[in-house]
Write a structure and sequence with these properties.
about 60 residues; mainly alpha; 2 helices
């Protein structure tokens, strides 16, 4: 199996219509290496906190 074909099979879940890697919109600007695919709903990220959760914690 060629190197590019193997790479494409490994990254198939992350590839968009144009053949380039595409990440979740939350992970797009993140500097940490735990990026998730655009196809998945954000499952768990120890580095991400939404502004909504920060507001809820400050009130209570």
């Amino acid at each position: 199996m060629s190197r590019s074909k193997k790479w494409r099979l490994e990254w198939a879940f992350f590839l968009g219509e144009n053949g380039r890697r595409k990440y979740n919109k939350v992970c797009k600007g993140c500097v940490h290496p735990c990026k998730q695919s655009f196809r998945a709903v954000l499952i768990s990220c120890p580095h991400y906190q939404s502004t909504r959760s920060k507001k809820c914690r400050d009130k209570g």
